[in-house]
């Protein structure tokens, strides 16, 4: 007799792996969608830091298009991931435990993984969203 946990794990893992492929086939760039929804208000659609809310902030909003250039030609993947994840505090983003747009990915995880979702499923979902966003920021780098 097969345990339900086994099949639930297999199905959840398959969904996590297949969803990005399905989204790509549908022409959806999840990283771009997240960026335009949550980041562009300050960093601007082009990533140069001149979004509509940039003028409301007392500090200059960083230009995300020069991250690679400012890091000797190497995109600082880990730092960007940690900033988005909240591990590296950025004062403009709010406290590490609550960026200004909230724990959006964590709050979204239960709805996106379904009623049988586990904490492991939520963690995978959140990582996938952060990786998609980091990947999109990479595409903004000045060439």
Task: Characterize the structure shown.
53% of the residues lie in helices and 0% in strands. The longest helix has 22 residues, at 4-25. The protein has helices spanning 4-25, 30-43, 77-85, 104-113, 119-139. Helix 3 packs across helix 5 (119-139). The N and C termini lie far apart (56 Å). It contains five helices and no strands. It is globular, with a radius of gyration of 17 Å.
What is the structure about, briefly put?
The chain has about 140 residues and is mostly helical. The chain is built from five helices and no strands.
List its salient traits.
single chain, 143 residues, mainly alpha
What is the strand and helix layout of this fold?
Elements: H1 4-25, H2 30-43, H3 77-85, H4 104-113, H5 119-139
Helix pairs in contact: 2-5, 3-5, 4-5
Any low-confidence stretches, pLDDT <50, length ≥5?
none
Tell the overall outline: globular
Q: Over all CA atoms, what is the radius of gyration? A: 17 Å
Number of helices: 5
Number of strands: 0
Helix content: 40-55%
User: What is the mean predicted local confidence, pLDDT?
Assistant: 78
Distance between the termini: 56 Å
Class computed from helices, strands and strand pairing: mainly alpha
The fraction of residues in strands falls at under 5%
Note the main sheet: none
The ordered H/E elements are HHHHH
